Amino acid sequence: EKDEKVIGIRKGDAIALPFGAVTWWYNKEDTELIVLFLGDTSKGHKAGSFTDFYLTGTNGIFTGFSSEFVSRAWDVDESTVKALVGSQSGKGIVKLDGSIKLPDPKKEDRERLVYNCEEAPLDVDIKNGGRVVVLNTKNLPLVAEIGLGADLVKLDGGAMCSPGFSCDSALQVTYIVSGSGRVQVVGVDGKRVLETTVKAGQLFIVPRFFVVSKICDPDGMSWFSIITTPK
């Protein structure tokens, strides 16, 4: 698209990023910003790894072109090219000078790209049990292009998420957001392949057709899962 989308993000936001999208992330607040990136890396430059494709910096694409090529592409003189390319940091995260002002977010830019799982209508609401919000093509159509769906599950203390699996052979990548509990995963042959205690910050994978169940501790537990189907 010719216009840059500038999105104000907040806790609970799920953002769908299509393949090839160029992004920058800026935290202008004093509080820490934590972003969890999950995605399909099978088509990456190195399968199984995220491909970091830097536009600027010491390992950015423009450092590989001669100043003549870049000056013609950007329509500036070669001394300006050398200043711009040569002054870039090679780090992925940098501290900006206070005088630098980035574009302000636009409310309309959130449409189509963002769905807030904390504020969304509940798909499941069990009294004294838990709540579920499902992210799919109905509430964020762009996930159809990406091929991934998601859900946010919050269990009350001592509650259980019954054994379940994806009938369309999707696999799940589950990140524990808060709390703690126990998880068991059983394979298609009826053998238990995982039994462990999980807590905030941990991540585990449920393979295709494998069945998973969770029981949370008295303080409750919540998790966010990426599922390899947009449905």
Can you tell me about this structure?
The protein is mainly beta. It is built from 3 helices and 10 strands, in the order βααβββαββββββ. The chain has helices spanning 67-74, 78-86, 143-146; strands spanning 13-15, 114-116, 124-126, 130-135, 149-155, 160-164, 172-186, 192-199, 203-206, 211-227. Strand 3 (124-126) and strand 4 form a beta hairpin. Helix 1 crosses helix 2 (78-86). It is elongated and about 65 Å long. Keywords: Disulfide bond, Seed storage protein, Storage protein.
The low-confidence parts are none
Oligomeric state of this protein? single chain
Give the number of DSSP strands. 10
The end-to-end distance, rounded to whole angstroms, is 26 Å
How would you state the average pLDDT, rounded? 89
In short:
By secondary structure, the protein is mainly beta.
